[in-house]
Amino acid sequence: MKYLALLLSLALCAGSGSSFAAERSPRKKKKHVTTETVQSVPATSSPAPADPAPKPEPQLELPTEPTPVNDITLGLSAEQADSLVALWHEQLRADSFTDFFDRYIGIDSLIGQAGSSGSDSLYAQRLRALVSPIPLAYNEVVKSRIDLYVGKQRELTARMLGTSQYYFPFIEDELLKAELPVELRAMPIIESALIPTATSRAGAVGLWQFMPSTAKSYGLEVNSMVDERRDPIRSTQAAVRYLSDLYKLYGDWTLVIAAYNCGPGNVNKAIARSGGADKNLGFWDIYPYLPSETRGYVPAFIGATYAYAYHRQHNIDLRKTPIPIAVDTIRVNRLLHFGQIASTIDLPIETLRQLNPQYKLDIVPATTKPYTLILPQRNIAQYIAHEQEIFAKDSAYLKEYMNPANLNKKLREGVRGTTYTVRKGDTLGGIARRYHVTVAQLMRWNNIRNAKTLRIGQRLRVG
Prior knowledge:
Elements: H1 2-14, H2 78-105, H3 111-114, H4 120-129, H5 140-152, H6 154-177, H7 187-192, H8 212-217, H9 232-250, H10 253-262, H11 264-273, H12 283-286, H13 292-309, E1 327-332, E2 336-337, H14 338-342, H15 349-355, E3 363-364, E4 371-376, H16 380-385, H17 387-391, H18 394-402, H19 404-416, E5 419-421, H20 428-435, H21 439-445, E6 459-461
Antiparallel strand pairs: 1-4, 2-3, 5-6
Helix pairs in contact: 1-2, 5-6, 5-13, 6-9, 9-10, 10-11, 10-13
């Protein structure tokens, strides 16, 4: 009911100047009084002259009733209706996020039983309270990862909590459809810090950090124009299929998570070296025989799961994400540059890049097949209303990019990534937040050893 009330109140505000919101004064009925004068006429008298023809009585003009509004938009324009739906969707998303922790995490009643907020017994009890098909073991290795997420990297955790409001709903949808544990949503936190353009030194890309060969094996398009490893939805669908296949191999979620990180081959070798090829082993049984990175991967997964569930107990508040939460999808059947849209309607090109990171050169290459384009819900009606005008700009925006020499130049720039020129007052932390990357990534990409040594005019790779 509260959402209905919200919709109605917003609609009334948005349409206060329209007919449905106008006050109507009651109509007053006019009383018609007809008087007749009767005169007695003597029988012997001559007939009275005929009365003149009666004058036509003036017709009353009744006020016209406004046409009743029967549709769900309450008389709003298409753009106003889109804004209303976006606001409603955003409120639902925010409420569901809060409701999850109120309902399923609640007030921490374990502190009194288990000691201080960072004690071993409290951490262990909190993990046991997160009943899951994935074993969430607790030991010193796991504790070090928990301390990292709720301590030194709490700012990163706050950013990921905000970003998760955009990414987690469709990740959870895909996991639930495949009947996989919903707790696997924490894997992109470990893989990419929920940054769809993240790239590893080994060449893995995207939320789920697919290598090109694995991506293509699971149906993702990877070429000069499109990299679906960076498409949050398509890469999540591929990752869910990959995780399902790994579970068919091992039947143990800790081994699945380990194999996702280092590959089934390394997990199989670790099982063989542990002497347990014929036994039902888990991650901690083969821990000493795994690559060093993978030995920290499952503990990091447990730590991220803990930090997500118990962030409020560590006084970590989510940082609002700049990504629009309420979005919708448009199908594109023609070659289209983001600039055509940004120059026509009120939609920054950076927002288009955030929502559609798979298009490497800001071009939707819909020449032989249709592609999808995600837009903020608030801009859907605006885009549709101006669609012809947008496509009419193709020669102005696509001529440069379709020239082979220019295209090769743009491709080289794409490989190098986005750059940023340092200005007065900039810090690595501020730049990292602006481009949704980590300080560690900026330092690694730009060979920076001391985060305090930025200089004005310095060019940084930021993506």
